[in-house]
Write a structure and sequence with these properties.
The chain has no helices and eleven strands. By secondary structure, the chain is mainly β.
Length: 119
């Protein structure tokens, strides 16, 4: 059994910063790609950023230059540093990861952490 646990969300004023963390727990052999998605009220869940096992990253255009995704493979943890936050960044942020358990790779999701940016 694998669990992804997010933390670091909260309320911040526009222009402020937050750092999200997501740790994976369980009988994990290895973790391939990890990523962050977000879902605003009444809208679909959208990809924000990804990082592969080699450290290569991708970002949605709306967060480029403001958000940075990173990972600590020794801790099975992925981070999202969010700077220059805007009200439109308000959403529930979810992490996900492709995790190898024994012989199978499956995709896992956390329960989400709320980020609210006030104007």
């Amino acid at each position: 059994q694998v669990q992804l646990v997010e933390s670091g969300g909260g309320l911040v004023q526009a222009g402020g910063s937050l750092r999200l963390s997501c740790a994976a727990f369980g009988s994990i052999s290895s973790i391939n790609a990890m990523g962050w998605h977000r879902q605003a009220p009444g809208k679909p869940r959208l990809l924000v950023a990804t990082i592969d096992s080699g450290g290569s990253t991708n970002y949605v255009d709306s967060v480029k230059g403001r958000f940075t995704i990173s990972r600590d493979s020794a801790k099975n943890t992925v981070y999202l540093q969010m700077n220059s936050l805007k009200p439109e960044d308000t959403a529930v942020y979810y992490c996900n990861a492709d995790i190898l358990l024994d012989y199978d790779v499956n995709n896992y999701w956390g329960l989400g952490t709320q980020v609210t940016v006030s104007s």
